[in-house]
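ingest -> validate -> predict -> emit
validate: passed (alphabet ok, no gaps, 539 aa)
predict: started
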Amino acid sequence: MRTSADSRSSTLDGLIQEIIALGRVLDQQSNGRISLSRPRSSLPHEITVTALSVKSLEEGIIIKAESDVTIVDWDGPEDSENPMNWPFKRKWVVTAILSGFTFISTVSSSMVAPAANQVAKEFGVTNTVVIAMTTSMFVLGQAFGPLFFAPLSEIYGRSHVLQFANLFYLVWNIACGGAKSQGQIIAFRFLSGLGGSAPFPIDGGVIGDCWRREERGQAIALFTLAPLFGIALGPVAGAWIAELSSWRWVFWSTSIGAGVVQLLGLLFLRETFAPLLLERKASRIKKQLGIISRDQSKVRTKFQSEERQWTSIFAKAIIRPFALFVREPVIQLLGLYMAFVYGIVYLTLTTLPDIFEGVYHFRVGIAGLHYLSLGVGLVISNQINASISDRVYVYLKNRNEGVGKPEFRLPTMVLGTLCLPSGLLMTGWTSEKVAHWILPDIGIAILGAGMNLNIQGIQTYIIEAFSLYSASALATVTCLRSLTGFGFPLFAPAMYDALGYGKSGTILASAAILLGCPAPFLFWHYGERIRHLSLSVAD
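emit:
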């Protein structure tokens, strides 16, 4: 006698075979729709309806139908193909490689700063604005690249676009080392900046893809520390290379590093963008059912629509970063403040050689070592943020009946808004009075801590608020901050010559207080209300 379990298994197997058989003749039918003709009452038990996958078809485990269209989704909350469910080791490997891409990009942006005068001397350039553009033109490229690379990553996937962009950067960075004129360097720096910009929005998107909200604090800490530490370490290395060798090796050495990171990415970096991964799964199911891959009317993912056309997808994706800036007050407010912070970063980079070579009369290599004080502030603040960010988030989430909010990432930003103006004041006035060199270094360290805490807080907030399209949201912010990173160093020499380091630092500190100190408090009280006005934030 057959058992009840045998009967259920036989019925379920028969049902799955019917689905497969029907699928093979779908294109020959006039309606082209999947339907389950077997009445529900004939089944000996109720089939749970959740999602369709290749495993579903083979084992009869999971099926989901919305009306007459089959929707492809993850195989439940524990699906190992979902990047959110990857082992921690795999997530950290991916995060470390992403940090390598951002580190190389920011090292390239800042490493040339101490060598800029050497480049100008070789090509006979005396204009201070043109000399500053040797450094800042790379940052101008970083302003525009994300507007295209970020939406492309939401079509073709994070991994492929990131690695293509890195190759583009590598080609033009090598060309910088072989430049024959100042004009060539400026043009090649812009092009290499375009390629080097991709990690900033895409890496944030990857972190949003594979790290859960209560786990993102430490991942964001590493992701944010890498580029900022690269900004600090680059000039140290660049100063010694410029003194002991040729400025051309500033570019060739970073190209070697970029090549190593590119190889690691090819070997270990895997795709994380959920819509693309599910689309690949849907394609495998369509192939098994005999459905053409571009037909969305019968089998598609939860992110696709029947009218899905490549041209409309591409147009929407390219427009998305601009649309986010126009219609999202979160992007406008936090983006503008982050732009100011990033402008201060590059203003500091271009000012330190003048302080320690001009005021304290250190030679190039020794003056470059003072960039390490910026790195000290970054490391200390990063350790503080990494150790408490997730704890604070989980604590506030538990107090809110287990519901997390992006605003729960703001408490550590409060300290950053205080450190930033404090560091500007201390650095400016101790340099003005030619106090012992350790005092400007302490001010620079405090300044670095403020930069890091602010940037980490803003990036984490944006990633959590714009989950699926976090890459496009970060692209908008990256564009804004890179424009100020390009522009601030251009007016810095004239400002310091006219006002001195003390008054200039006071003006910048006042702006930091006015723009920054109210920000975390305003978003803490009104951030949720602002987000509810949005069309793009995560649920």
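The longest strand covers residues 69-72.
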